[in-house]
């Protein structure tokens, strides 16, 4: 075993790591508002909105992420002139938004129904009650799983290498092809993913303990 390949090619690996984190973070920031809107649509009193929101969630969750990334890059990307970078971000964001929508729906439905009734009886409109009463309470419930979604995104982002995004995984593939040190390179790549996701998972556990105490 020759581990000297790691420090020798560390600049390339570091660049790939930054790309992985950047794509994951931007995709999360885009997926959160989409997921919130779809989640609200899932509990809408309008049957048409509720149907389309439900269809969106079931369809996106039923399509493999790899297929979604390839379709956005090769099909949608032709019409919208998306490069691999933005195709990767939108693919991850759309995929993640379906899961965030379910988190939002579950969080809102976990708030006692009496809270909405009390808010409406005090003269608030449905939107005011949702914004001022229900969502602040639901936020405490959905924050930990929302943070956990970022961990999932980081691991899922390894698939963007299939559409030529130079992330940590693609850098690892290229280094293996040029150095033939597959054991050392892939072991190091796996450890990097583990360190990042483990650190974030500890943060998620802290949030879960904190908001469990509040409740």
Fourth-level CATH superfamily: MetI-like
**Helix/strand order, N-terminal first:** HHHHHHHHH
Distance between the termini: 52 Å
Question: Structural class of the secondary structure composition?
Answer: mainly alpha
Helix content: over 70%
- The CATH class, by name, is Mainly Alpha
Account of the 3D structure:
The chain is mainly α. The protein has one domain: MetI-like fold, CATH 1.10.3720.10. 84% of the residues lie in helices and 0% in strands. The protein has 9 helices and no strands. The longest helix has 33 residues. The model has no long low-confidence stretch (mean pLDDT 89).
Descriptors for this entry?
215 residues, mainly alpha, MetI-like fold
Outline of this structure?
With 215 residues, the protein is mainly α.
List strands and helices in order, with pairings.
Elements: H1 5-8, H2 10-42, H3 47-62, H4 65-80, H5 84-109, H6 113-121, H7 126-156, H8 168-179, H9 182-214
